[in-house]
Amino acid sequence: MRLPGLGALGAYWRGPMAEVMPGAAGYPKSSLYMLLRTLVELGWVETDATGTRYGIGVRALLVGTSYVDGDEVVAAARPALDRLSGDTAETVHLARLDGTDVVHLATRRSPHHLRPATRVGRRVPAHATALGKALLATYDDERVRRMLPRTLPALTERTITDREELIAELGAVRARGWAADREESTVGLRCFAVALPYRVPARDAVSCSVPAARLTPDREQAVRDALLDARERLTLATRRL
């Protein structure tokens, strides 16, 4: 896995620290280590006692936290997210489209023991998530074709990997007003989402994730109704943004 934040430096990691692989980046080894040493001194990267393994530093965390803390949409959405979390007792996310991915900006964890792992800052391919589909559906089909390749990567065996099949589903999302992810991102997890219309095309969406084992038809309808209600509340909360 590529270490986030180092880009072309080509570091890879397993867990919190990564061994540097200069050849993967095309950089001379001496130049690469000078860059890493500078990043360590500035707090963006941390290293172990041997100086051969590297990980993201605390400054990156502080910058990420500052982004979320200063975001007007996140602040305006808090009461509606709290209400949605209380109404459903399931995990709730607020996410933003970034290129062809969605990034989680805020989350409310389900009180149930069986619940998805979640964190602010998580990045997931848009085509494989209800959040992403809800947001992509606010773009026209030609724009989606320009954004996405013909063949899309699979996260599970249920992920839609054909761009045209995805575009057909986006048409259904537009018609009904909500999007679904039926174990397309994570096996055993289903998710429903709605886009926030304070911008067109939308850039933010809210979702509710439910383990498949707990999702009955009545439960699914209740979750969708709660999401549509949350969209109305969020539309009012973000109308001046």
Give your account of this protein's structure.
With 241 residues, the protein is of the alpha+beta class. It contains 8 helices and 9 strands. It has helices spanning 22-25, 29-42, 58-69, 72-88, 130-136, 141-147, 163-176, 217-237; strands spanning 18-19, 45-47, 53-56, 91-98, 101-108, 123-125, 179-182, 189-195, 204-211. The chain has a 6-stranded antiparallel beta sheet, with helices on both faces. A hairpin with a 2-residue loop joins strand 4 and strand 5. Helix 4 packs antiparallel against helix 8 (217-237). The chain is globular. The model is unreliable at 1-15 (pLDDT under 50).
How many beta strands in the DSSP annotation? 9
Question: Which stretches are low in confidence, meaning pLDDT under 50 for 5 or more residues running?
Answer: 1-15
The rough form would be described as: globular
H and E order = EHHEEHHEEEHHHEEEH
End-to-end CA span? 36 Å
**CA-based gyration radius:** 20 Å
Count of alpha/pi helices: 8
- Biggest sheet strand line-up: 6-5-4-9-8-7
Mean pLDDT rating: 83
Q: What percentage of residues falls in helices of 4 or more residues?
A: 25-40%
- The proportion of residues in beta strands is 15-25%
Quickly give the structural class.
alpha+beta
Describe the largest sheet. Answer: 6 strands, antiparallel
